[in-house]
Design a protein that fits this description.
By secondary structure, the chain is of the alpha+beta class. Helix content is 40%, strand content 27%.
């Protein structure tokens, strides 16, 4: 900075000559000598700047390593702290059962009705298991859930025609039949059912999700100029062996209406088991 001030003062003294680009040789030599005198200081400053950059880079690297270590510690703590909900609840109920004589008597009474070699859980434990959202017998692919669509366009629809969603993206539990379009639950419970029907432009139709021939919900699809999807959802209590399917309404569908199968779907899953 001191060198810069001297240079500026020199230019100010030489005003006119500087503007015209005619700086006397004496001044040029004077400025060069000043620069040479402070050249070592400039080099030292450059070295200090380079050293500071290296220190900053090293600090950043150390900071990232600390963050990674903290993340590893948090993940390890979460794994150690997490306890399966069922194990925790069952353990607490067992503890309460030991402290409560009436609970012990109820457990013994239940045990008398069990077959030889079978293990009966306390009634309150069974209630917890059956009432929660995730059923106790959920095990990988055995949990009931399906998601399907139709592989082609369907025309010339008839009254009460049963729609066959022949491509199953998901069929856990194998309760849905791709050849008939019928879902037959193998577990008694409350199910969520959802269907979408997409029709070609200019025509409309109504469809239904039915259980054993009884309507659970209706679907309307139709538009004058565009392909039109219509959707609806039903939440229904189903028994083992019930037949659930999607069908065309018994008379509300236009002649010549076409279903776009790739955009027409039928899905469902078990929400929770019931007694």
């Amino acid at each position: 900075m001191a060198v810069l001030r001297i240079f500026l003062v020199t230019l100010a003294v030489c005003g006119l000559d500087a503007v015209q680009g005619e700086i006397p040789n004496e001044i040029q030599q004077f400025v060069l000598s000043l620069l040479q005198e402070h050249d070592e200081e400039v080099m030292e400053l450059k070295q200090e700047i380079q050293s500071l950059r290296q220190e900053v880079s090293s600090l950043q690297s150390s900071y990232l390593k600390v963050l990674h270590k903290l993340d590893d510690i948090r993940q390890k703590e979460n794994k150690e702290v997490s306890v399966p909900m069922e194990t925790e609840i069952y353990g607490k109920i067992q503890e309460l059962g030991i402290k409560n004589p009436s609970s012990q008597n109820a457990t013994q009474s239940n045990a008398q009705h069990n077959s030889a070699g079978s293990k009966q859980l306390p009634e309150n434990v069974q209630h917890v298991r059956k009432g929660r959202i995730v059923p106790h017998n959920m095990n990988g692919n055995y949990q009931t859930a399906f998601s399907t669509y139709i592989s082609k366009f369907i025309s010339n629809l008839q009254h009460n025609q049963q729609l066959v969603f022949d491509i199953a993206i998901l069929n856990n539990g194998n309760a849905y039949d791709e050849t008939s379009g019928v879902f037959t639950p193998t577990t008694k419970g409350v199910y969520v059912l959802f269907a979408t029907i997409t029709t070609s432009p200019g025509k409309s139709l109504e469809a239904e999700i039915v259980k054993n021939g009884n309507v659970l919900c209706r679907i309307y699809s139709g538009d004058n100029t565009l392909y039109s999807p219509g959707s609806n959802m039903a939440v229904a209590a189903l028994d083992i062996g019930d037949r659930v399917l999607v069908r065309i309404h018994d008379h509300y569908h236009d002649d010549g209406v076409t279903i776009d199968g790739a955009f027409s779907t039928f899905s469902g899953f078990l929400l929770y088991e019931t007694d």
